[in-house]
C-alpha cells in the first residue's frame, strides 16, 4: 500500500508554468485543475472541469475531485482519488478496463454535446488522449479542438460567449 499524501490547493486565474509538488492548482477561469502526479514521478496531470469530465468539490477548506485520476498515458500508470486534500490510492486498471472507460467517456461526451449518432457508433476502443498543455499557452486553441469546431469550441462559446 502506498503512503498517504497530503496536498494543498491554490485557486489561480491561470495554471502556472511550474507546478509545485503536492499542490493542486484550480483555475475557474479555464475550468481546469492541474497538479504533479501524486506518485512522485514529476509529470503534470491536467483534469478539465466539464459536465462529462471531472467535478471539483470545495467545502470551504479542502478540495476533492471526482471521478478518480487515472494517469493511463503516463509511464507510472497511477490511479488515485483526491478527497479533502488527501490522496487515496486506487487499484491499477488493466488495458481493457482503460479502453472500456475511454469508449464510455466518448459516448457520454457525444450524448451530452448532442451527437446521438456518434454516441451510438462510438467504438469499444478509443485511442489514447494526448496530454493537455498549460491553458495559458494558447487559450484560443485548446487540445482536442477539431478544425471544424467540436466539443472544446462549443464549450468555450458556451462558457465565454466567444
Essential attributes:
5-stranded antiparallel sheet, 3 helices, alpha+beta, 162 residues, globular, 4-stranded mixed sheet
Quick description:
This protein is of the alpha+beta class and 162 residues long.
Commentary on this structure:
- The chain has 162 residues and is of the alpha+beta class.
- The chain has two domains: 5-89, no CATH class; 95-156, no CATH class.
- The chain contains three helices and nine strands.
- The protein has helices at residues 95-112, 116-121, 150-160, and strands at 5-6, 8-11, 23-27, 32-36, 44-48, 55-58, 63-70, 79-83, 86-89.
- The strands form two sheets. It has a five-stranded antiparallel sheet with strand order 1-9-8-7-6, with no helix packed on it. A four-stranded mixed sheet has the order 2-3-4-5, with no helix packed on it.
- A hairpin with a 4-residue loop joins strand 3 (23-27) and strand 4.
- The termini are far apart.
- Residues 124-148 have low confidence and may be disordered.
Amino acid at each position: 500500500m502506498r503512503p498517504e499524501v497530503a496536498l494543498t490547493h491554490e485557486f489561480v486565474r491561470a495554471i502556472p508554468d511550474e507546478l509545485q509538488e503536492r499542490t493542486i492548482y484550480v483555475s475557474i477561469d479555464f475550468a481546469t485543475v492541474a497538479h504533479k502526479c501524486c506518485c512522485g514521478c514529476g509529470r503534470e496531470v491536467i483534469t478539465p472541469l466539464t459536465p462529462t469530465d471531472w467535478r471539483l468539490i470545495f467545502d470551504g477548506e479542502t478540495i476533492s475531485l471526482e471521478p478518480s485520476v487515472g494517469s493511463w498515458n503516463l509511464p507510472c500508470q497511477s490511479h488515485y482519488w483526491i478527497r479533502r486534500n488527501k490522496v487515496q490510492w486506487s487499484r491499477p486498471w488493466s488495458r481493457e478496463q482503460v479502453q472500456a472507460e475511454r469508449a464510455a467517456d466518448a459516448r457520454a461526451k457525444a450524448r451530452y454535446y448532442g451527437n446521438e449518432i456518434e454516441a451510438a457508433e462510438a467504438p469499444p476502443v478509443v485511442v489514447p488522449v494526448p496530454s493537455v498543455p498549460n491553458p495559458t499557452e494558447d487559450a484560443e486553441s485548446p487540445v482536442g479542438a477539431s478544425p471544424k469546431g467540436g466539443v472544446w469550441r462549443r464549450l468555450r462559446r458556451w462558457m465565454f460567449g466567444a
